């Protein structure tokens, strides 16, 4: 089971569809608060989250999640990674993300990452 | 040919030489004239003194003549009582110690009496100095004889002869023989300067008296230069030498009455010294002036050159990339002004550099934002494409993926158009197709389309519009409204409230878009319409959005002759954007028959 946390509605919708087609069960959240509520309702194995969102961003979410649910794997997806913020993904890994992908990424990449983490 | 550049102090020294050269020439000429005048004055003084002394000598000689004349009137002589006369003459002789004798002779030279020879002794006739005796007889006038060496006394003396005339004929010649010491005393009494030589000559230019070596020189001929001068002129001034050979200036004069001469030898050194003094004072003054001017030239040169040199090094430092303060202190007004101007120039340059650096930074930021702004729709698009590829035909996800693709494509088209339009505006290539249009209607239309497109799906949007007409480009005004609305949506939370209104305010049509979103910090308000500036630097990039929208709103509003402003009570207090455009009257055919009431439109999307 996956919790997908992404503020952009269309991206969220497209990713949910793609993950469901791959056989995953997906629950959506538009910000960190929503994602945390969902996780507390029923913990998921994976959290896929954007970093920059209004009202509780990805960093806050990861912080809380790691404290409460250390078993949940975290995959960060971010559009950060331009010249001035190339260290965004690296810092996400540093603070405990299991994987980080830079937007736009191929869906197969995301699926492979999930497979790899599942077997770990 | 490039003129050779030399130091400022060299220029100043040249200047001062140019100024002093005429002064030096003038001084030399003046000095020469002054020296000449001084010499002339000196000469006149010396000549006057010569005349005075000669007059004294003449007076002395004339005194002797008078004395003899008085003696010649003696009764005893007239009556031929020579014995009696002898006694009278002896008394006179005693009164004149410098007189060696008095004698009486007949015109033929027969001596009748001589006080040196005892009475009754036979006397030799007058032999010596015949010329003076002959002259006295011939002219019947007193004669002063030249110096002669006494045959018995072996001493130099001279005779003063006075003819005693009776009934038109010379009866006797009465003579006094006088030693020249009296003349010597006379000139010594004048107190001539010690180095000066005073000399008295007889008619044949032999020395009668002399202040220097009176005994040794007596009877000798005068110096050759003096004799030559006397041959030329009875009085004058010349440069010659004494009988001893010392160089002297000599004023001289021959008496018209006695034929005797007085001359002075003034050491030429004493005369020339006065001229030398004048020259020396002038030269010293000139040298002093030159030295003073040189020192001043060096000081002034340094005062000018040093600040210029430090300005030059400051400029060099700036060229090397360092911002140094230009030294501002100079006592030379022009240099101080130059320094001020240079400082202003550098300040402006620095400001411009800062501006360029800022613009560069903004450009970098803009590229970062742009890249983010393109990555988000690309993520949605690539994912939707994956869904289309993997989903089975007829699956509901296919339709949803198609919707995503349509919306995101439209969004990307708009971002691209905004970019292009901004570039066009900046290059002045954007032309408006203006026509009368209802701004209220346009705003209603745009908000409706947004809702249908689902992009305004995050907040409650209240719309309150009146039909207000403007002269506008419909497509451009649509961009203005869309961008303001999108901006409000972007920065307002799901529970937020956005209020859009259009109304007429005097001559203006006013569009207002207010939200209760995250607001704008006071210090950023002025900059929100600038290209590439997005909100607070501390705020994460994606939340700041793309600054293109607001920049384009401002440019397009200005092209329509309007103004746009932003207001916010602060962070978290929401923002209000107001666009004012010149309003026009609605076209007659479109004017409503009944006044249009403000249309209320409220829709809340969860």
What does this structure look like?
The complex is a heterodimer of chains A (120) and B (606). Chain A is α/β, with parallel strands linked by helices and 120 residues long. Chain A is built from 5 helices and 5 strands; from the N terminus they run E-H-E-H-E-H-E-H-E-H. Chain A has helices at residues 9-21, 32-41, 58-68, 88-94, 107-118; strands at residues 2-5, 26-29, 46-50, 73-78, 99-102. A 5-stranded parallel beta sheet of chain A has the order 2-1-3-4-5, sandwiched between helices. In chain A, helix 2 (32-41) runs parallel beside helix 3. Chain B is an alpha+beta fold. In chain B, a hairpin with a 2-residue loop joins strand 5 and strand 6. Chains A and B meet through helix 1 of A and helix 9, helix 10 and helix 13 of B.
Strand order of the largest sheet of chain A: 2-1-3-4-5
Q: How many strands of chain B?
A: 19
Give the low-pLDDT segments of chain B.
533-545, 602-606
* Helix count, DSSP H or I runs of 4 or more residues of chain B: 14
Radius of gyration of chain B: 67 Å
Task: Characterize the overall form of chain A.
Answer: globular
* Residue windows where pLDDT falls under 50 for at least 5 positions of chain A: none
Q: Treating each run of at least 4 consecutive H or I residues as one helix, how many helices of chain A? A: 5
Structural class of chain A: alpha/beta
The residue-averaged pLDDT of chain A reads: 85
Specify the helix fraction band of chain A: 40-55%
What oligomeric assembly is this protein in? heterodimer
Task: Give a quick account of the main beta sheet of chain B: strands, pairing sense, barrel closure.
Answer: 8 strands, mixed
Largest sheet of chain A: 5 strands, parallel
The share of residues in helices of chain B is: 40-55%
Calculate Rg of chain A over CA atoms: 13 Å
Query: Strand percentage of chain B, roughly?
Result: 15-25%
Note the run of SSEs of chain A as H and E.
EHEHEHEHEH
**How does the helix and strand content of chain B classify structurally?**
alpha+beta
Largest interface: A-B, 31 and 35 residues
Tell me what portion of residues of chain A adopts beta-strand conformation: 15-25%
């Amino acid at each position: 089971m996956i919790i997908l946390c992404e503020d952009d509605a269309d991206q969220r919708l497209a990713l949910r569809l793609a993950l469901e087609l791959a056989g995953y069960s997906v629950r959506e959240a538009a910000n960190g608060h929503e994602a945390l509520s969902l996780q507390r309702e029923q913990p998921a194995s994976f959290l896929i989250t954007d970093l920059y969102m209004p009202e509780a961003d990805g960093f806050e979410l990861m912080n809380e999640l790691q404290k409460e649910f250390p078993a949940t794997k975290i995959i960060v997806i971010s559009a950060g990674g331009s010249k001035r913020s190339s260290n965004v993904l690296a810092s996400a890994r540093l603070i405990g993300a299991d994987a980080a992908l830079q937007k736009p990424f191929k869906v197969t990449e995301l699926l492979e990452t999930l497979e790899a983490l599942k077997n770990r | 040919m490039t003129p050779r550049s030399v130091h400022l102090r060299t220029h100043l020294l040249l200047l001062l030489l140019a100024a002093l050269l005429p002064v030096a020439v003038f001084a030399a000429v003046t000095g020469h004239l002054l020296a000449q005048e001084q010499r002339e004055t000196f000469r006149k003084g010396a000549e006057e003194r010569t005349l005075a002394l000669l007059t004294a000598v003449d007076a002395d000689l004339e005194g002797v003549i008078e004395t003899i004349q008085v003696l010649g009137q003696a009764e005893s002589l007239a009556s031929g009582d020579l014995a009696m006369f002898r006694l009278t003459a002896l008394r006179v002789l005693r009164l004149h110690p410098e007189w060696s004798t008095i004698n009486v002779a007949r015109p033929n030279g027969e001596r009748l009496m001589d006080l040196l020879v005892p009475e009754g002794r036979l006397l030799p006739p007058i032999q010596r100095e015949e010329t003076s005796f002959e002259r006295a007889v011939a002219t019947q006038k007193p004669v002063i004889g030249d110096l002669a060496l006494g045959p018995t006394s072996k001493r130099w003396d001279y005779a003063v002869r006075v003819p005693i005339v009776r009934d038109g004929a010379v009866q006797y010649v009465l003579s006094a023989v006088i030693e020249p010491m009296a003349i010597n005393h006379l000139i010594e009494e004048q107190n001539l300067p010690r180095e000066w030589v005073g000399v008295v000559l007889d008619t044949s230019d032999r020395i009668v008296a002399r202040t220097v070596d009176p005994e040794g020189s007596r009877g000798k001929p005068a110096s050759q230069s003096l004799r030559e001068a006397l041959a030329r002129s009875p009085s004058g001034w010349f440069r010659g030498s004494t009988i001893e050979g010392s160089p002297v200036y000599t004023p001289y004069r021959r008496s018209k009455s006695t034929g005797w001469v007085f001359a002075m030898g003034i050491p030429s050194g004493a005369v020339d010294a006065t001229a030398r003094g004048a020259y020396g004072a002038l030269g010293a003054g000139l040298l002093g002036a030159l030295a003073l001017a040189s020192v001043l030239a060096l000081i002034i040169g340094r005062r000018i050159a040093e600040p210029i040199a430090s300005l030059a090094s400051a400029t060099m430092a700036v060229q090397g990339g360092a911002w140094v303060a230009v030294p501002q202190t100079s006592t030379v007004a022009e240099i101080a002004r130059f320094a001020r101007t240079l400082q202003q120039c550098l300040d402006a340059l620095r400001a411009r550099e800062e501006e360029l650096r800022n613009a560069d930074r903004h450009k970098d930021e803009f590229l970062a934002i742009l890249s983010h702004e393109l990555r988000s729709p690309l993520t949605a698009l690539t994912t939707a494409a994956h869904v289309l590829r993997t989903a089975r035909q007829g699956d509901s996800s296919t339709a949803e993926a198609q919707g995503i693709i349509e919306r995101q494509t439209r969004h990307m088209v708009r971002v691209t158009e905004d970019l292009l339009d901004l570039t066009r505006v900046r290059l002045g290539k954007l032309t408006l197709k203006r026509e009368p249009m209802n701004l209220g209607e346009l705003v209603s239309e745009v908000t409706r389309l947004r809702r249908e497109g689902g992009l305004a799906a995050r907040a409650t949007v209240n719309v309150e519009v009146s039909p207000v007409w403007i002269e506008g480009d419909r497509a451009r005004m649509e961009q203005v409204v869309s961008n303001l609305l999108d901006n409000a949506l972007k920065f307002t939370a799901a529970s937020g409230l956005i209020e859009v209104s259009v109304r007429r305010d005097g001559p203006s049509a006013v569009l207002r878009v207010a939200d209760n979103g995250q607001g704008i910090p006071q210090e950023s308000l002025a900059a929100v319409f600038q290209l590439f500036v997005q909100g607070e630097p501390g705020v994460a990039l994606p939340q700041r959005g793309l600054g293109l929208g607001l920049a384009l709103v401002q440019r397009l509003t200005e092209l329509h002759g309007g103004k746009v402003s932003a207001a916010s009570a602060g962070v978290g207090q929401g923002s209000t954007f107001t666009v004012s455009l010149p309003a026009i009257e609605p076209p007659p055919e479109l004017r409503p028959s009944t006044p249009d009431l403000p249309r209320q439109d409220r829709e809340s999307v969860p």
